[in-house]
Amino acid sequence: MLLKKDKVTSPFLAEKFEVSRRTINRDIEDICKAGIPIISTQGYDGGIAIAEGYKIDKTIFTSDELQSIFAGLNAIDSISSNLSSEIIFGINFLRRKMLLYLTQGIF
């Protein structure tokens, strides 16, 4: 999402991914920890953006690899009764992200 837009707000992301603003804030914090420079500005015309000039190598996974990962995440549903709620939440979160990547042609 941040790769396609200059700036977005936490409420926009929360609504888009159907999670709380707190979850978005935690995710943004994790993205920063992963080394992606995120800039957050408050107030009128504020929002969240990737630092200008930062480029992400989109060739980490091919479209076919992403589809395979997505299929694997979907296959985990058959054993989900044996998994903790945290792991199930993480899998569902990844599944939503993968679906977004696949359907919007980000890669």
UniProtKB/TrEMBL annotation:
SUPFAM superfamilies this protein is in?
Answer: Winged helix' DNA-binding domain
What is the official name of this protein in its record?
Answer: HTH domain-containing protein
**Can you give the residue ranges of the Helix-turn-helix type domain?**
1-46
The upper taxonomy is: Bacteria, Bacillati, Bacillota, Clostridia, Eubacteriales
Superkingdom: Bacteria
Q: Could you tell me which species this protein originates from?
A: Clostridium gasigenes
Q: Which Pfam families match?
A: HTH_11
